[in-house]
Structure formats: C-alpha cells, structure tokens
Amino acid sequence: MSNKVVITVATTGGFTTRENNPNVPLTPVEIADEVYKCYQAGAAIAHIHVRDEAGNATMDFEKFKETVTLIRAKCDIVINITTSGGIGFNDDERMKPFVELLPEIASYDCGTMNWQHSTVFENTPAFLEKAGKKMQEVNVKPEIEVFDPGMLYTALYYVKKGILKEPLHFQFVLGAPGGIAATVENLVYLKSLLPENATWSAFGIGKESTPILMATLALGGNVRVGMEDNSYLFRGQLAESNVQFVERAKNLIAELGKEIATPDEARQLLGLVKKV
C-alpha cells in the first residue's frame, strides 16, 4: 500500500463557469456521468460541489442528494462532499449534505480567509467545533483543507480539544487568491508541518497546478485534479473533460513506478468507513 497514490477528482467546484470552460459539468446528471468516467480512468475519490439552475454555487440538499444517488448507482468511488459550496450559507445548510448523505469524507476548511481578495470565506470557531463534533458522530472523516499554515495549526489545536480525531487527513490548497502561493517551496514547508501519522494530498490552482502535481508526487503525497481547480490541460488548451486530468495524473504516477489506488484501497489508506 505504500506504493499507492490516491487520485481525487474535483469535477465542478463552486466558481468555474461555462465561460471559463464550456465543458465543466454543472447539473447532477452531468456531474455523475463525469465522475463515473473519471472513476473508470482511475480516480478513487470524487469531491462533490453542486450548482443551482442558474449554474451558481449552492448548498441545496436536493441537488447533493440527486448527484450522490446517481454516482452511487454507477460505481463505488469514495464520496467527498464539500461543506463550502459558496459564500453566505448558514451552518445547517453547510452540514446537512454530509449529515444526511453520509459520505466517507467531507471537506473541513480549517479557518477564515479573504477569498479572492473580494469577500470573506467564513469558517468561525463555532462552526468548526460544531462540524468537527458532528463528523465524529456520523463517522464522516474530515478532509482538512489548508489554505495557509495557520489552518494546519488550527487543526492541531482542535485535536487537543477533541473536536478532531487522529489520524488526520490534510488537503493542501496552493494558489487560491488570499491563501498561500502555489510554489514548490511552500508545498515542502506545509509538508514539514504534518503530524507524523497524518495522510495528505495537495493541488495547485490555475497555471501552477501541474508543477504542484509533480512536486506532490515526488514528495510522496496523494493528488487532486479537475476543473474545480484548473480549466486548462496545457497553456492555451482548455480541457475537454475531467478525465484528461485524471489520465495525466495516472501517467505521472506510473512514470514514478507507483500505482493508483482503487476506491477500496483509498478507504484503507485514509481510514475511511464505506457507507454503501
């Protein structure tokens, strides 16, 4: 298992539009079909955001329910539901999808930040404590998203308080405006802060996604790819599908002499409980 690498695909996100890339999947049917194709290509985890009828970010429970139900009918990919599908949603709206749909894993954004230098991405201590306790209660593992080093230290604080339970799983987010820049030096620094028994993954946003992907693999991490984070497969070439990102990651993993993890192997590596 030490030779396995987990690929997470983030097909949609909350902000990529059809103007950014006309191929981004937005409806539950489109997302489920894309996730299934990525599963066939080698993705072990699907990070799920949904959109409303106008294509805007939403935490609408029925959209999540439809999307997750369609995915589960197609394959056994690990489901990772966001708790941050946009700005301005209340705590219950953010938590209901993971509480009711019981994915194996859900995002846990461990701090507040000035999102894209234009608004506040708010994760109050009260919300983080409530979400952490509820994830333990329903046996959904937090994916601790780290946009700057302080968020990692916040996670360690919540371990001491009993809000989070070790071993922790981290997702390093590099290149979000308002967060830590997407450089290899920053990735190495973030990795150096990890607790000894933690698992981790990383991705870069936009043009730095490929260097961060390569550096993450070289450092022994797991990877996240997809149109949530990058509309372009290469400079000037829009991706035709999320599958292309998964295929590229798979090829790089093979070049390193490693293998992609299956969904069940990902569950074993990350300590997840299969729900269906």
Written account of the structure:
The protein is of the alpha/beta class and 276 residues long. The protein is built from 9 helices and 16 strands. The protein has helices at residues 28-41, 61-74, 91-101, 125-138, 149-161, 184-192, 209-218, 242-255, 263-270; strands at 4-5, 7-10, 45-48, 50-51, 57-58, 78-81, 105-109, 113-115, 119-121, 141-146, 169-174, 199-204, 222-225, 232-234, 237-238, 259-260. It has an 8-stranded parallel β-barrel with strand order 2-3-6-7-10-11-12-13, surrounded by 8 helices. A two-stranded parallel sheet has the order 1-16. A two-stranded antiparallel ribbon has the order 4-5. Helix 6 (184-192) links the parallel strand 11 (169-174) and strand 12. Helix 1 (28-41) packs parallel to helix 8 (242-255). The protein is globular and about 45 Å long. It starts with a strand and ends in a 6-residue tail after the last helix. The relative contact order is 0.18. The mean pLDDT is 96.
